[in-house]
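ok, trying the design again with the full structure, not the truncated one.
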């Protein structure tokens, strides 16, 4: 039997938004919500797991905490064959079994970024939401690693991935690069996937509603808050 885990997270110094977790429609997966809010009540079928934000980067401490289940599901929940990740303002619409079957022999399924930027353009577009020294260090490091500017940019607010050695190595590196460099994980994923290559299936549609959205793990609406956002 194929075991699938759906994961999401919300990490904040305040309360969780009124746009709460959705009611589960498909019982073909196990659902996990990671949060630092011990008092929040979750709908039936959701498993709540507490996160404890702690980082030397106090500005983006919450955002970085939210990356832990996003990138390291294979360490937190090792007994699954597949993981479906989505940021808090998404929901699973399609049967998770049908979603993972789309991968075939690919290691992960991702949505293309609708803007078609290079990793350098993406980093500069997000520079105002990052420490300047982190921006400079990220640019220098990716140039040192010779990450091609032609590398595909992915929208990573939701994705599906396998629990296998190759994918786990890539996602371990992604977590390390996100910790060392910028916490804008679209940029660091490009480097991780270049240095520890995985086979990627392009999911149909887009991850966020401004690009048309998708019928697999749609975005709930116009709010674009990121999981694990900073203060």
């Amino acid at each position: 039997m194929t075991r699938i885990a759906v994961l999401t997270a919300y990490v904040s110094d305040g309360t969780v938004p009124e746009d709460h977790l959705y009611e589960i429609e498909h019982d073909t997966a196990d659902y996990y919500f990671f949060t630092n809010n011990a008092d929040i009540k979750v709908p039936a079928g959701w498993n709540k797991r507490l996160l404890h934000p702690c980082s030397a980067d106090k500005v983006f401490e919450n955002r970085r905490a939210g990356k832990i289940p996003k990138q390291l599901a294979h360490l937190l929940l090792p007994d699954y064959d597949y993981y479906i990740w989505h940021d808090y303002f998404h929901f699973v619409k399609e049967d998770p079994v049908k979603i993972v079957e789309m991968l075939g022999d690919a290691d992960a399924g991702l949505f293309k970024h609708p803007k078609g930027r290079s990793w350098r353009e993406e980093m500069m577009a997000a520079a105002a939401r990052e420490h300047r020294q982190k921006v400079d260090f990220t640019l220098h490091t990716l140039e040192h690693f010779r990450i091609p500017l032609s590398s595909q940019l992915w929208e990573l607010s939701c994705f599906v991935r396998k629990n296998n050695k190759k994918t786990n190595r890539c996602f371990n590196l992604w977590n390390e690069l996100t910790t060392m460099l910028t916490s804008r994980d679209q940029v660091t994923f490009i480097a991780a996937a270049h240095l520890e290559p995985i086979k990627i299936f392009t999911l149909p549609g887009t991850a966020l509603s401004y690009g048309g959205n998708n019928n697999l793990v749609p975005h709930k609406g116009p709010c674009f808050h990121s999981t694990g956002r900073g203060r």
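Keeping the full-length input from now on. The two ends are 42 Å apart (CA to CA).
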